[in-house]
Each structure stands twice: as C-alpha cells, then as structure tokens.
Amino acid sequence: MRVTKAQAKQNRAHIVATAGRLFRERGYDGVGVADLMAAAGFTHGGFYKHFGSKADLMAEVSANGLSQTAAQAEGRDATEFVERYVTREHRDGRGDGCTIAALSGDAARQPGDIQKEFGAGIENLLAALQVASQGDTLGDADGRAARTTMIDMLAHSVGAIVLSRACPDGSPLADEILDVCRKEILASLAHGNSDQPAARSPEA
C-alpha cells in the first residue's frame, strides 16, 4: 500500500517525537536505530526513507526539543520558570522534560551541527525568558544586566536537575539539591528585582 505524503509526514513526526523521548531518557548513544524504529512501530529499514543518518535525526530532534522548551517558557517570567523547572516532577520526568537538562552533556561530545542547535536553542530560551521577565524595550546596559541574570538563573536551574538526577531516585540528597537550589535561585531573583528602579507612573 502506497503511503501518502501526508501520512509520510505524520510518520516522520512520530519518529522524531519517539526519538526525542528516548534520547532524553537514554542519551544519544543509548538508542540504536533498530530500537528507535521498533519503539515507534516501524521497521528498521523504514528509517532511511525519512533520514539520511542517525546524526540527521539527532540534529532534528535536538532542534525540535529545544524549540518546545523555549515555547513553554514564553509568557513565564524567571520566577515562574524556576518554580516549574526545579521540581521533583521535572527531575523524574526525564523523557518529557527539558532537552537542555537531559542532553547538554551528550551534546558536548557530538558533532558541531548538534552543538549549533543547542547554542541556538539556548539563545532562544534566554530571549523568551528575558522578554517575559523584563520586556523587550530595555536599554543596552539594562539589557546586558537582564541577560546576565537569565544566564545565571538558567545555568543554576539546569545544574540542579542534572545533579539531582545523578543521585539515586530515593536518595534524600536528590530532593535536598532541588529544594536548596530552588530556594537560592528564587532568592537571588527577588534580590535582583529589588535592586531595579521602580517603574515611573505615566504623567497625567
């Protein structure tokens, strides 16, 4: 039976979504093409009708996952982001969680194309968070300060998830890392906001 273009497009999207979940759970090198296609419900040979290589799939999955993370951050300021991100639910939901926290370590050992996708994805996430937190009309100095705050917050948030996941699931330390980091990040954000000059009311 001939597969229509619409069905082929749907099949490809399903493979990408399945690969994203498996890569986040096991890492890029922990999933073979045969296992991936079986999990997606297709034959091994069907993979090459959609992708030239596993590396091509990895790059597309990375871009897709990073775009989803940035989209989920839109409209949420830094405080809201941290409260949702640095949690036990996110820590345990590796397959459905943030691509940055799950695969940054792997990406550092992958070809340049994947690192480029991560660089672009992290930039997009920082931009979304900065707009939600500070708006998009800041001057140069304030814009640089806001970017510094977003980078610091994101690095600490990702690090908290990574460290917690490195601990055994039932370890008290896994929760302690999340609790301490979330509290400290939020305190730092609150302190930074208190240092900002109060917005002036429009003149009558």
TrEMBL record:
DNA-binding region(s) in UniProt: 32-51
Domain HTH tetR-type residue range list: 9-69
Record Pfam families: TetR_N
Record bears the keyword S-adenosyl-L-methionine: no
Annotated keywords: DNA-binding, Transcription, Transcription regulation
SUPFAM superfamilies, per the entry: Homeodomain-like, Tetracyclin repressor-like, C-terminal domain
Protein name listed in UniProt: TetR/AcrR family transcriptional repressor of nem operon
